[in-house]
Design goal:
CATH superfamily of chain B: Oxidoreductase, molybdopterin-binding domain
Order of helices and strands of chain B: HHHEHHEEHEEHEEHEEEEHEEH
Structural class of chain A: mainly alpha
Number of helices of chain A: 10
Largest interface: A-B, 21 and 32 residues
Number of strands of chain B: 13
Distance between the termini of chain B: 39 Å
Number of domains of chain A: 1
Oligomer: heterodimer
Helix content of chain B: 10-25%
Radius of gyration of chain A: 19 Å
Structural class of chain B: alpha+beta
Helix content of chain A: over 70%
Distance between the termini of chain A: 43 Å
CATH class of chain B: Alpha Beta
Radius of gyration of chain B: 19 Å
Strand content of chain B: 15-25%
Largest sheet of chain A: none
Shape of chain B: globular
Order of helices and strands of chain A: HHHHHHHHHH
């Protein structure tokens, strides 16, 4: 095998493992009792932040490929999107199981009454069809509709940032940073679309 | 356990601490009588550090002499020293729960002065030692309920605020007390960003301030209060949400009008002037009906929050006839 082939063969598994590193660090903190007095809050923040980060990383792939011309990146997009779903699912489970203690009544009340939860929960629910149809079979079956369906990810990322922005008490710095990154990522696409049409 | 100071089997500090520093410390404690408080800054002697343990940010732990048991203590088991000192909301040192423990070492708690102002017969700027001198320090174990729907149990050391207030003779015009935290952006990095309107202010109605539950606090677990918990002098009002219990107090002002308070000014619809613990009145973004009792890890159970944080017998009469939804 040539070097390039080995690289090609190792690339995706390496990134796959890399995406588990945050979870590894968190597990290590649990094991060494290095979490705060409120580990449920720690877990909520950790899973939520990484869910949002992976959404933004996924959305960065297309612009990055275009800027660098490195087409191998595209092979990561689905996996990264699924990691966003993975961390978002953990986030939902931590909330539903540890935070809300599986109290369905409380959960429904929260979803209906608390806007930041309404928004966050909607984003999570919308991620489900994207995860389910993230295979070759669905792409073939849904044809054009697949593209339209997966454009939902832009809305989901927006709702994710809004969810974060709406829940902080006073310090909006971190959600604003995520928001700015999202605006840049969507802005590049809009710009390219416009110039493509103009040409 | 971190509260080794109470354990008689511990190696005496003299065997680990540099003897010179140890001697200085004894000397100091002798000199300052019952208050070894101001010692915090100067005596950076790590009290009990065995090989392999990391020094915590509160590396200047010093015991306070002559603390008596005070009234109103709960039977509930206090949270660990580590939890109380590493899980703090003190935005002057960062908005993360661990930021204050990591950053508050820059706070200079000695020398410290407190300005007494407004509708009072003996206004002035007083040294902390003079503020504390006449008071007997007591330990009171109080429940602490944060507006974020978590709670702890904390063994504070301090004295009733009412005793302090009486010494300065407020005039008949004094209807409210306003407290102000130190303003020192150089040493309080959080004050360099406008998260809140610095300096932090809080306030109580006069009868709330005079209630025997209301405390001025200088210690925790029998030791000098760590910086991240509001050293050298903070307020504790156990029937109100935690943010009312202002930290590192530099000014106490008596007024005839209800003072502006930091969180109320920041979000008036979310944080009221009273901010009494009340399970029936939700924060606009989350419920206050339950609270997570911290200290049991991932499986810390939620319990029903009690009106006035369980102190209704002592304080409910202060609010007779008031619409608690309006005056939240």
């Amino acid at each position: 095998m040539s070097n390039d082939q080995i690289m090609s063969w190792l690339f995706k598994p390496a990134v796959f493992l890399l995406c588990l590193v945050p979870l590894g660090f968190f597990s290590f903190d649990i094991y060494t009792e290095n979490l705060s007095a409120d580990p449920i809050e720690d877990a909520t923040l950790f899973t939520g932040e990484w869910g949002l980060r992976f959404l933004l990383i996924t959305l960065a792939i297309t612009p990055l490929r275009r800027l660098t011309g490195w087409s191998r990146l595209l092979r990561l997009r689905r996996m990264l999107g699924l990691y966003a779903f993975f961390y978002a699912s953990l986030h939902f489970m931590v909330w539903f199981w540890l935070d809300r203690e599986l109290q369905l009544g409380d959960v429904i009340e929260d979803i209906l009454k608390r806007p930041y939860i309404t928004v966050g929960f909607s984003a999570f629910v919308m991620l489900i069809p994207l995860a389910v149809t993230s295979n070759k079979f669905s792409i073939r079956r849904l044809k054009q509709r697949w593209q339209s369906l997966h454009k939902l990810v832009y809305l989901i990322a927006g709702l994710g940032v809004l969810h974060f922005l709406w829940l902080v008490k006073a310090d909006v710095q971190e959600p604003i940073i995520y928001g700015v990154i999202l605006i840049i990522l969507l802005g590049i696409r809009a710009w390219w679309d416009r110039t493509a049409k103009a040409a | 356990m971190l509260i080794k100071i109470k354990n008689k089997n511990d190696i005496p500090a003299s065997e680990i601490t540099d003897p010179e520093i140890f001697k200085q410390r004894r000397e100091f404690i002798k000199q300052s009588g019952q208050f070894a408080l101001a010692a915090a800054g100067t005596l950076a002697a790590p009290e009990i550090l065995t090989a392999g343990t990391l020094p915590t940010p509160a590396s200047s732990r010093a015991k306070i002499e002559g603390v008596v048991k005070g009234p109103y203590s709960t039977e509930q088991k206090p949270n660990k020293y580590k939890d109380i000192t590493n899980y703090c909301n003190y935005y002057e040192f960062g908005t993360g729960k661990r930021d204050p423990a990591a950053n508050a070492h820059t706070l200079k708690t000695s020398p410290w002065q407190v300005a007494i102002e407004g509708e009072v017969e003996k206004p002035g700027v007083y040294n902390l030692e003079d503020i504390l001198k006449p008071h007997t320090l007591e330990e009171r174990i109080y429940r602490f309920r944060c507006v974020e729907a978590w709670s702890m149990v904390v063994p504070w050391v301090g004295f009733p605020l009412s005793d302090l207030i009486k010494r300065f003779n407020p005039t008949s015009k004094a209807k409210y007390v306003e407290f102000t935290t130190l303003y020192d952006p150089e040493n309080m990095p959080g004050q360099r960003r406008r998260i809140l309107d610095w300096p932090y202010t809080e306030g109580l109605r006069m009868d709330e301030a005079m209630n025997p539950l209301t405390m001025m606090v200088v210690g925790l677990y029998g030791e000098v209060l760590p910086n991240q918990n509001g050293a050298p002098l903070r307020l504790i009002v156990p029937w109100k949400y935690g943010f009312k219990s202002i930290k590192s107090i530099a000014k106490i002002r008596f007024t005839d009008k209800q003072p502006a308070t930091a969180w109320n000014s920041s979000a008036p619809s979310e944080y009221g002037f009273y901010s009494n613990v009340n399970p029936a009145v939700s924060h606009p973004r989350w419920s206050q009906a339950k609270e997570r009792v911290l200290g049991s890890g991932f499986f810390a159970k939620k319990v029903e929050t009690k009106i006035y944080n369980g102190y209704a017998d002592q304080v409910a009469s202060l609010y007779t006839g008031m619409d608690l939804r309006k005056f939240f």
